[in-house]
Automatic annotation (TrEMBL):
A GO molecular-function descriptor: DNA-binding transcription factor activity
Protein encoded by which gene: marR
Gene Ontology annotations of biological process type: response to stress
InterPro entries (alphabetical): HTH_MarR-typ (IPR000835), MarR/SlyA-like (IPR039422), WH-like_DNA-bd_sf (IPR036388), WH_DNA-bd_sf (IPR036390)
Pfam families: MarR_2 (PF12802)
Chain ranges of the HTH marR-type domain: 29-161
Gene3D superfamilies: Winged helix-like DNA-binding domain superfamily/Winged helix DNA-binding domain
SMART domains xrefs: HTH_MARR
Name this polypeptide is given: Transcriptional regulator
PANTHER family: HTH-TYPE TRANSCRIPTIONAL REPRESSOR YETL (PTHR33164:SF43), TRANSCRIPTIONAL REGULATOR, MARR FAMILY (PTHR33164)
Length: 171
């Protein structure tokens, strides 16, 4: 049903739209998303700064960590695991190859395909980067009791599972 909205430029509007305008607007801080984003931004930014000091980005760290402990992986497998395109993996790999942290190896069973593997420098770097991740977690979540931390992790995992969130956070 259309009703007239009175103003200096009077025109017909949908009555339901007019009701939406009158609805109260909640404070930003009343939304869980606000608090999740606030904490996430600070945790992520602090971690990114630590990695920057080591010469890598968060996305590069994730790729390095995925390669750690395995002889090599194919770009397609990394793309699936990390929730990225093969093109994005290729660009990340190129940057890490230039930094001499990753090498591209030919596959023995398929001349058209290749695998990615850590160099000795890359293998040595991953534990240092992991220590930064641990330090960052301790700085932001160390005050939580073991039970609080388990509850928070459980709730976040439940939300991720319910929403089908699988792509790794890279930024």
């Amino acid at each position: 049903m259309l009703t007239r909205k009175y103003s200096s430029s009077s025109f017909l509007v949908n009555k339901e739209d007019a009701m939406l305008e009158a609805a109260p607007v909640a404070d930003l801080t009343s939304h869980l998303g606000y608090w999740l984003r606030l904490v996430s931004n600070h945790v992520s930014h602090a971690f990114a700064r630590k990695l920057e000091a080591e010469g890598v980005t968060v996305a590069e760290w994730v790729l390095l960590r995925e390669l750690y402990g395995v002889p090599s992986l194919g770009p397609s497998r990394l793309a699936d695991t990390m929730g990225l395109t093969r093109g994005a993996i290729s660009k990340l790999a190129d940057r890490l190859i230039r930094k001499q942290l990753v090498v591209r190896e030919d596959r023995a069973d398929d001349a058209r395909a290749h695998l990615l593997a850590l160099t000795p420098a890359g293998r040595d770097l991953v534990p240092r980067l992991a220590a930064h991740a641990d330090t960052n977690d301790a700085a932001f979540f160390g005050h939580l009791t073991r039970e609080e931390r388990a509850a928070l992790e459980g709730l976040l995992k439940t939300i991720a599972l319910k929403r089908g969130l699988k792509a790794m956070p890279l930024a």
